[in-house]
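Order emerges. As here.
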Amino acid sequence: MSDISFEPVFLQQPSSSELEIAINRFEQNLSNGKLHVTARQGLQGNNDLAFSEPFPKLESHDSYLYGVFATPTDIADGLSNFFNIQLVVNDKMALVVLWGSDPSTTSRAADLFLRIKQTGFPPPSLSSGSHGEPGDIFVRIARVICDDLQFLISTLSKATAKQMIRIESRLFDKKYQSLSNDATETYLRIRKLKLEVLSIAPVINETQNVFRAIIDREVLILPPFTNDHYDGAPFTADQRIWINGLLMHTRSLKAQREGTEQEVRLLYERLESLEHRQQTVAQDRFSAVASILLLPALIVGYFGQSFEFTPWSDYRESWIFSGLALVFIATIQFAYFKKKRRL
């Protein structure tokens, strides 16, 4: 593969005319002259499902490879939308198209596209003898996606840990503090975390499958469509080492994501326990107050009966003695329930 003859082309949210020109240029390098309809539709970004339920893949179309990568647009909105990186590559040209940037994620889209575009101009120290090669373009983009997924999973994990500390600090507090005032808001935050953690799982799994397929030589540009007449085109031995490393990275990403999912499930359990405890505390308080008022009410009711003779009725200060007795009884009960943490 000649460094001079290979041409990478990168497009972000291209217009239909810009994309058609790029596709026509790519098809000029194909022996059969046409992209398969699945590759063309993918490059055009016509599949809305790809932005909500993406399916990373890499397919051999004999004279070229067609691939799809994906990464979440935003992990804080709970919408589970994704960027799609569509690419076709042969031994002469690579066409890479980024779709999925909406107004709320413009900055992130620009940053992601810049990193992807820079993969077309690798520093010499990273991969000797592979500047501008199709396999090298693929490896560099794959590294950007894996790094991005790592950053997002780490962010989700930190957000989950923050919520866990917040909830458990109240759950195990001796004063039985409650989240009742913002329980709904807390639940919504946890729900967003859950949606993002679950939605990213297929992306990681299928990206892992893409790397495994390359290692197992399941996707190739076949002779006579490539200048390299060996059983690994377009990936060199050096590039396969990089991809094997990325395969190991996706295994780590998968384990991290599963761990975060377990943490989110535990968050739900902790939140439910905290709210249940608050309900129990409230019930105990009502019971204690009712008990405190019950005995004085019984005494008042008893002595308030219409009898000809009532103890202390001959004394003017009898109502004071009765009042003090009721206050004393109520105070004793209050102190008891306070000591038992029922108030």
About this structure: The chain has two domains: 7-277, 284-339. Residues 284-339 form one domain. The CA atoms of residues 204 and 254 lie 6 Å apart. The radius of gyration is 34 Å.
